[in-house]
Amino acid sequence: MIHQLCQQPQIYQIHVDLPDNPLKYLNSYVIKGKTRNLVIDTGFNRPECRQALCSGLNELDIDLQRTDLFITHLHADHSGLVGLFSAAGCPIYMHPDDYQYLCDSEDGSTWKFAEDNFMREGMPEEDIKTQFSNQARKFSPKIDFSVHAVHDGDVVRLADCDFHVIHTPGHTKGLCCLYLPEEEIFFTSDHILFDITPNIQVWYNMKDSLAQYFRSLDKVYDLPVKLALPGHRKEAHSIRERIDDIKAHHHVRLQEVLDIVRKYPGSTAFAIAPHMTWSMRGKKWDEFPPTQKWFALGETLAHIEYLLHHGQLVRTDVQGIYHYSLP
Ligand SMILES: [Zn+2]
Ligand SMILES: [Zn+2]
């Protein structure tokens, strides 16, 4: 499915369906220039996504020989089909932190780190084993491509437009948004989503991701925005209210963790997570699909890490398993 979002520059959105995934679809953006085109993000490395993306590109008459690809961040729903573009020789743009993470993931070591970490946080081994079927793992790209590294403040000329790169660590360490100041168009990727809340996880390569995320929200708060184009779901025409809502949401969750730990001192993160409020269509924790438990524990841990950094929680190590209490 294709929508045209803007006439000048010519911006189109391709809905790339993400089967069996609560995100539903990825927004891949296509900007058609006079001499070259730009594609922003791709969908998972799976046939259903490839088909949706390719049919969208065909319908828009996109010649890959005259196309650049910008990957906003490492997640497989954004980077999965990079091979389609690298095989055609398209220049690929990405922040070096997320590119490095993808390279480190090739031998499974980043997943091993997450598994060991989640084990320490009380997740049972049988739950960890189910993660071999995690879509983020199964449909990730093959790393046989190199990138043009982009950094905060860069202005890159792509599809006849001057895109301003805004580095917004939090959702991932290397997530970059793109901004067109003249048109006040802001490609927010998964930094700001409007119908769902971006997932904030713990990372081995980023300390206190939630604090960094708050800073990255503040960083873009005052940008003039007429059209905000997110990585998933619906676009919007302003960002400030949404940023206020997202921050309020996380502050409620931080308080929720403190309340749970007050009630159940010495809990593991895995024991804290089921008591949090999750919007999983009325599902109880025990009915969560394994992948959702994985993301929920990661999200809980990001909040715990923030509270540890701010001296509001303490952690004790009991035979290799972490337990949390109020100071
Ligand atoms: Zn993401
Ligand atoms: Zn995403």
The class by helix and strand makeup works out as: alpha/beta
Please identify, by name, the CATH architecture of the largest domain.
Answer: 4-Layer Sandwich
The small-molecule ligands in this entry are: zinc ion
Mean pLDDT metric: 94
Strand arrangement across the biggest beta sheet: 1-2-3-4-5-6-7
Q: Please mark out the parts with pLDDT under 50 across 5 or more consecutive residues, or reply none.
A: none
Query: Quaternary state, please?
Result: single chain
Distance between the termini: 53 Å
Kindly identify the CATH topology of the largest domain: Metallo-beta-lactamase, Chain A
The share of residues in helices is 25-40%
How much is the radius of gyration in Å? 20 Å
In CATH, the homologous superfamily of the largest domain goes by the name Ribonuclease Z/Hydroxyacylglutathione hydrolase-like
Tell me how many strands there are: 14
Number of domains: 2
| Helix and strand element order | EEEEHEHHEHHHHEEEEEHEHHHEE
Strand content: 15-25%
Q: How many DSSP helices?
A: 11
